[in-house]
Amino acid sequence: MPNPQFESHNIFFLETTGVANLSIRQACAVESTARYNLQSNIIVIMFTQNQFEDSYNLTRMFDNVQVKLFSFEEIFEGTPLYEWYKMGEWNSTVYKINHLSDASRLAVIWKYGGMYLDLDIVMLMSLSGFWHRGLKNFLIKERDNVLANSVFGFTRNHPFLFKCMINLVEKYRSDCWLCIGPWLLTNQFGSFCKGLDMKDIETDMNCNVAVLPASCAFPIPYYNWKQYFTKDLRNHVIRKIGESYVIHLWNYLSSKQALLPDLDTAYGMVMSVNCPHVYKYAIEMGREF
What we know:
Layout: E1 10-15, H1 24-36, E2 41-46, H2 58-61, E3 65-69, H3 72-76, H4 82-87, H5 96-112, E4 114-117, E5 121-123, H6 128-132, E6 138-143, E7 146-147, E8 151-154, H7 159-171, H8 182-192, E9 205-206, E10 209-212, H9 234-240, E11 246-248, H10 251-254, H11 266-274, H12 276-285
Parallel strand pairs: 1-2, 1-4, 2-3, 6-10
Antiparallel strand pairs: 4-8, 5-11, 6-7, 9-10
Helix pairs in contact: 1-12, 5-7, 7-8, 9-11, 11-12
């Protein structure tokens, strides 16, 4: 795993469904991030027992991309979530994969330090602005009163992530999809900042954690996700994402919106510019994304 001396430049992706390869969208997320952040360690953790299939040659194309195969037990070992995982209540819920994904990202960043990114993002520019501003500990507003768990970063063993993991164990509800996702980070951050109301959070330092505006990663909110795939709205979306570091595609809503590569949609244009290798592959193979 990464060298702790360079933890602020670790960028983690997690594939928790058990597959041994990446989809077009996931490969685009990795390529775009690697392309813009050549000095960072891009670590893709695959929770699979099978040999990883690098269909897009990303590990050969980019020296900064690593793919690591782990079990959940290995990731949770040494964290407050280990006994929760061993008890196995998560195994009886229809949200099993969601809950393991939400929990494992907390464990990974707490253990190793760095940034976590969902695999349904596209990187639009270098994160050098983050590093130069010293943004080692940050959260991003998903919307006004909710903090996202799809893009965040912390140093190793940060007490906020420890607090989140402890609360997850104590208050775990197998019947609640979002309770250990954005709601957990949002509720625990208010408590971590000694009762700070989310309405009072400014996009600045709060309790030595930067809270960044939604425009950094969520310029198009979840309820407008179709705009990324709507031809008539391409130019509108391109203008909206102009100052974003990352865009998030809300894959739990958009995953069934399969399209052939199309420059007339905002997502097609963003792919062609920011992950051109994967985009070209999709064209040549006639693959939907």
